[in-house]
From TrEMBL:
Name of protein: FAD-dependent oxidoreductase
Upper lineage: Bacteria, Bacillati, Actinomycetota, Actinomycetes, Kitasatosporales
Keyword field: Flavoprotein, FMN, Iron, Iron-sulfur, Metal-binding, Oxidoreductase
Keyword Metal-binding in annotation: yes
Domain NADH:flavin oxidoreductase/NADH oxidase N-terminal: 11-325
Length: 660
């Protein structure tokens, strides 16, 4: 952050009847600790932990106002129900106890079902189908608009009864209030009148309660307000609210992934600032001190974040106290934080956990466990992929005296470093930077380009953690194909000059095949054939990422998708493809073939140390989240064993970031 804006970020701000302790906002998201539409154990602790991290204003999201807007699985808070008030009091008390101002965002989804099943028909101002839905909604009758207004009033009353300091109206992301405001979904033109009625109903409940409103600033093909429409609307709404929160996108585009490297609303602040007299909140993709400073310099009064605070709830304290380098970064992978399976989780933050767990569940493979044989505090971590990096850093933070990290390559990161080289996937590099800075600050002995052997290198260690990763294998490699990991590591030169590239996917639709397709585009390959045994291209990556990926690929090359097909061989004529449905075999002429192979653990090292644990892909190749969680768990177990064996040692308990 520019030094000239650091004091502003830390400065208090009076907003309505409340005083915020700084300019950082936790924007609307949900904890996932919701069952049958009501908060359960863990919810209050999550919000209390978030408030303890230093954000001044916490906006609780995932809150619907009417039965027809609530998915039937009940994982979204239903605030129209009076029985929600009691458990919400605990949530608010937890936030207030840590000095935060608590606001509840209210939404009616209207024609947007979030892809979830509902007991009721979707409704909207008119029967205009959303491009994200298979059918058009039912148009609201005139009397039902009164019911919508009343639904917002009742839910607001319940929120204020629970102790919330205010309400934020969700008029963004193509949900019902924006559907009313957009001429493309409300030909009656009474959207502002409906919004004014909702605002008046809430104002009638309390003269002191904060009232904010959220808008999307970018136009969409179907509903979102155009820049001119938003510019005309803001002066009318501004006097009616206490703050305006601006974000981006509709349902499938509002959560940008790591391909978006700069907060998109920064480009809109110069246009919006003169239209708003109230405090202006700039939201979305703010993850660094520098971008926070950019927003404040451009005229924002407050800067909002959600995923960045899920990754590290202490980000506000760290940034405002000159410790931004210690922030565990959100990489915008859109994986665990978007699934709520079973609650809000985070790939990079192993301290977010399901109810009753101290951290994300993980089970390192135990090769040896004899604490009585440990005579000191020397730990070797073999492999500097995400599992090894997390383990080494956690051990250092625990106070284990002597941690040595071996890495055969000349760089940290393992396969994660390779993934960070893929086009539009540089978010992983931020995580590797965090580990590199942390290891350096903790004086961990990092030995790059050195292979740890069972003999001299590992002799004398009390514990050894094997994080040696996995290798990519495929029968097609011997026939002339290039492994996806190799192609990505070599970058554009690996495909430069090719006229036609065949990507042989493994059928599971995850990132490696998608990354190779984008690498081919970056290399200027005019024709790409994507062969997959699965039913779709990119079928397993997060839905928002898939939408953004397809937008990036549109019009860039001749990309042909062959689903339900398997690449079975390579010859001078091209790649042999077996078609699952017809049983026939064809040859796709191509001058390069890249295969997404199966990943298998590297051969295990024999080790005679008293404590031996294997973690990450060296156990079974999976996702980054598994590697980080197992690395943390291994560190916790080893630190506990050291403390138990030597109660007067220098090892201290781990101090994890614990939201629950």
């Amino acid at each position: 952050m520019a030094a000239s804006h650091l004091p502003l970020a830390a400065a208090p701000l009076v907003i309505g009847s409340s005083t915020l302790r700084n300019r950082l906002v936790a924007t609307a998201h949900a904890s996932g600790f919701i069952r049958d539409g009501l908060p359960v154990g863990g919810d209050a602790a999550y919000w209390g932990r978030l408030a303890a991290g230093g954000a001044a204003l916490l906006v609780c999201g995932g809150t619907t106002v009417a039965p027809e807007s609530a998915p039937r699985q009940g994982n979204i808070l239903q605030l129209h129900r009076p029985e929600a008030v009691g458990p919400l009091r605990e949530r608010v008390a937890a936030m207030h106890a840590e000095g935060a101002v608590a606001v509840c965002q209210l939404v009616h989804l209207g024609r947007e079902t979030l892809g979830a099943q509902s007991y009721y028909a979707p409704v909207a101002p008119s029967a205009v189908r959303s491009p994200r839905e298979p059918t058009a909604p039912r148009a609201l009758l005139g009397s039902e608009i009164d019911e919508v207004v009343e639904a917002f009033r009742v839910s607001s009353a319940h929120a204020l009864e629970a102790g919330f300091d205010g309400i934020e109206l969700h008029a963004a992301h193509a949900y019902l209030l924006e559907q009313f405001l957009s001429p493309r979904t409300n030909p009656r033109g009474d959207g502002l009148e409906v919004l004014e009625r909702v605002i008046a109903a809430i104002r009638g409940l309390s003269a002191d309660a904060l009232l904010g409103i959220r808008f999307s600033v970018d136009a969409s093909e179907d509903v979102a307000l155009t820049p001119d429409e938003l510019a005309a609307l803001l002066p009318a709404v501004d006097p009616l609210v206490d703050y305006v929160n601006v974000t981006v996108g509709v349902r499938t585009t509002y959560v940008r992934d790591m391909a978006t490297e700069r907060p998109p609303v920064l480009d809109d602040l110069a246009r919006l600032r003169p239209l708003v007299t109230r405090p202006l909140v700039a939201s979305h993709a703010f993850r660094t001190a520098a971008s926070i400073g950019d927003a404040l310099a451009a005229g924002a009064d407050l800067v909002g974040m959600a995923r960045a605070l899920i990754a590290d709830p202490d980000l506000p304290h760290k940034v405002l106290n000159g410790r931004a380098a210690e922030v565990r970064p959100c990489v915008a992978c859109n994986e665990d934080c978007r699934t709520f399976d079973p609650v809000l989780l985070c790939v990079v933050n192993p301290d977010l956990a399901p109810p009753g767990e101290p951290r994300r569940p993980a089970a390192p493979l135990v090769g040896a466990w004899d604490p009585a044989r440990a005579t000191g505090e020397r730990v070797a971590v073999v492999g500097a992929g995400p599992a090894g990096l997390e383990c080494a850093l956690s051990l250092a933070h625990a106070g284990v005296a002597d941690v040595v990290l071996y890495e055969a390559a000349d760089r940290l990161g393992g396969q994660l470093a390779t993934a960070a080289l893929a086009p539009h996937r540089a978010g992983w590099a931020a995580l590797l930077g965090f580990y590199e800075r942390g290891l350096s600050a903790a004086s961990v002995d990092v030995r790059l380009g050195q292979t740890a052997e069972p003999g001299a290198e590992l002799e004398g260690f009390d514990a050894v953690v094997l994080a040696t990763g996995a290798v990519e294998t495929s029968p097609l490699l011997e026939a002339g194909a290039v492994a996806s990991s190799v192609a990505l590591a070599r970058g554009v030169p690996s495909l430069a000059g090719a006229a036609h590239v065949v990507v042989a996917d493994d059928g599971f639709g995850w990132w490696p095949g998608c990354d190779v397709a984008e690498l081919a585009v970056a290399a200027g390959v005019p024709r790409i054939t994507f062969v997959t045994p699965g039913t779709a291209f990119a079928g397993a990556i997060p839905p928002e990422s898939r939408v953004q990926l397809l937008e990036r690929l549109s019009g860039t090359c001749d990309l042909e998708i062959l689903p339900l097909c398997t690449a079975t061989g390579i010859s001078p004529d091209g790649v042999t493809v077996a078609h699952r449905t017809s049983g026939r075999t064809t040859t796709v002429p191509a001058d390069r073939a890249v295969v997404v192979g199966e990943r298998r653990p590297r051969g295990a090292l024999d080790c005679a140390a008293p404590l031996v644990l294997t973690v990450g892909d060296a156990v079974v190749p999976r996702r980054v989240a598994h590697a980080i969680a197992e690395g943390r768990e291994a560190a916790v177990r080893i630190a506990a064993a050291v403390r138990q064996r030597m109660p007067h040692s220098r090892a201290e308990p781990l101090r994890p970031i614990q939201p629950n």
